[in-house]
């Protein structure tokens, strides 16, 4: 049944009015909303960037408490700002707040995995002797950047967990491909010593000293090996050995604190 002409005309007019209302009222309204949201986002971003500059300025001026406060405000505005987590972790670490720094680095890694935060996190776990967590962190680090310095951290975690054979295997792989295997030779020598393979430990230590004769820790390690082999005179000679230049930080740092037996600690 056909609708009356008047009804059809009214319906057409109603549709036209709706279209007109949408085009003249709703569309501009939606556009204004989008513009407002964009403006708010830009304003928020500008505020975050301004606060970041302020926080970094406080850090440079050694005003760590003020810097930490501002980083907190940054992260309240933008909880996904990975750089803020990383920089705040640096400050927290410098103040001795290792756990808080590690939490920030974990968040940073979830947002934006990178070699720097991964190595920093691994180093913190090493300092805290949290070797299980450190092994996970070191494994992730190597996935990001497969380098010998990063492998040295992984090996250190294995030594901390007393998984000496795994540490030996990892060290051997890296030593074969590295022209300057200083820290790795030291790690493997420690592992050989811990597993009472004294001849192999001595061979690695001798090679290390030939490559880097200015590492005092190497002479201390070799003295301990000599003592284990009953060579007391050679041990005494190494313990009296002094070098002109002192320890090389790069080679000693990855394994500092591991020579417990050299400092009178338990075997």
Structure characterization notes:
- The protein has 267 residues and is mostly helical.
- Among the domains are: 67-146, Serine Threonine Protein Phosphatase 5, Tetratricopeptide repeat, CATH 1.25.40; 164-267, Serine Threonine Protein Phosphatase 5, Tetratricopeptide repeat.
- It is 76% helix and 0% strand.
- The chain has 13 helices and no strands.
Q: Could you give a short description of this structure?
A:
The protein has 267 residues and is mainly α. It has helices at 5-60, 64-77, 82-94, 98-111, 115-127, 131-144, 148-160, 164-177, 182-194, 198-211, 216-228, 232-239, 249-252. Helices cover 76% and strands 0% of the residues.
CATH architecture descriptor name of the domain at 164-267: Alpha Horseshoe
Element string (H = helix, E = strand): HHHHHHHHHHHHH
CATH superfamily of the domain at 164-267: Tetratricopeptide repeat domain
Structural class: mainly alpha
| CATH class membership of the domain at 164-267 | Mainly Alpha
Amino-to-carboxy terminus distance: 102 Å
The number of helical segments is 13
What share of residues are in beta strands?
Answer: under 5%
- Give the strand tally: 0
> Whole-number average pLDDT?
80
> CATH topology of the domain at 164-267, anyone?
Serine Threonine Protein Phosphatase 5, Tetratricopeptide repeat
Main sheet specs:
none
Overall 3D shape: elongated
Poorly predicted runs of 5 or more residues: 244-267
Q: Give the C-alpha Rg.
A: 31 Å
Give the % helix: over 70%
Oligomer: single chain
